[in-house]
Write a structure and sequence with these properties.
single chain; alpha/beta; Rossmann fold; 2 domains; 11 helices
Length: 298
């Protein structure tokens, strides 16, 4: 029976642990790798442009022995030129899996519902599960355990924040989220977690933190709100002053792309405590592990 990765909630704690162990192995053995996707083709259905997501998935599929087909918005017109259900049914006839980077979460849900092949959520407005898995794998690499760690997220309660909260709950990681009032992550039915505390004071959230994470204040599609958000979020910038409240050796994380001088300063982003490029590298290894688990032949 096929398995999809639409949400962090699709993974149990044991499955996350399995994914981390395989990602670790694949990272250590690169470029000497097996070919579990030999003779398989994966469709990359992208409604949004990307650097890290596209390159890491295409490279990962290639290194695992498979091939990828990139489908831009002009190629499909998901839900406009053709219904999502028909796109899913057609792709299921030709390829072995679908990696979807879409505007609305409902689109990836529908793809998974009608496709007879595995569907991976490479980003939606509600979640960014591949990013969150790579991020906590990076934390795992550094600390080897989550118990006793304090993870602080400062900024907008966006899709990355929501996926991190769900994964923190699964992994037993204590997470503190600080956003301006009105920008908290939506506690929908999919976001019921007792491992995270929501605050509106970045200093309280960051106090004695082991890890400090931030993301852009205006996500893709929210550009019209940028000037408004710059004013509202100004006290939530991750800078040297704010970091005085965290542990001196705290790790700095950002999923990129970064708007230097807005949500984070260059001084912090380029500091010795920053692990943002380890995060970026680990997108490749974690997604290779995910592809292997979901798509390799029995």
């Amino acid at each position: 029976m096929k398995k999809d990765f639409v949400s962090i909630k699709d993974l149990s704690k044991k499955e996350v642990e399995k994914l981390f162990l395989l990602a670790e192995k694949l990272k250590q053995t690169r470029p000497r790798y097996e070919k579990p996707l030999q003779d398989k083709t994966i469709a990359l259905v992208f409604e949004k442009p990307s650097l890290r997501t596209r390159v890491t998935f295409e490279t990962g599929i290639y290194e695992l022995g498979g091939k990828s087909i990139y489908l831009s918005p002009q190629d499909i017109g998901l839900g406009k030129r053709e219904s999502i259900s028909d796109v899913a049914r057609n792709l299921s006839l030709w390829v072995s899996g679908i990696v979807a980077r879409v505007f609305t979460h409902q689109s990836v849900i529908e793809l998974a519902e009608y496709a007879s092949i595995p569907v991976i959520n490479a980003l939606s407005d509600l979640e960014h599960p591949c990013q969150a898995i790579a991020d906590l794998f990076t934390v795992y690499e550094k600390f080897k355990a989550f118990k006793g760690l304090k993870f602080a997220y400062i900024g907008d309660g966006n899709n990355v924040c929501r996926s991190l909260m769900l994964l923190a709950e699964t992994c037993g990681l204590e997470m503190f989220v600080a956003t301006p009032k009105g920008y908290e992550p939506n506690r929908s039915s999919q976001l019921t977690t007792c491992n995270s505390q929501l605050l509106n004071d970045p200093k309280k959230a960051i106090s004695n933190a082991d890890v400090v994470y931030t993301d852009v204040w205006a996500s893709m599609g929210e550009e019209a709100e940028k000037e408004k958000r710059l004013k509202i979020f100004k006290d939530f910038q991750v800078n040297s002053e704010l970091l005085k409240y965290a542990k001196p050796e705290c790790l700095i994380m950002h999923c990129l792309p970064a708007h230097r001088g807005e949500e984070i300063t260059s001084e912090v982003l380029d500091s010795k405590n920053s692990i943002v490029f380890q995060q970026a590298e680990n997108r490749l290894h974690v997604q290779k592990a995910l592809l292997t688990i979901l798509l390799s032949s029995p």
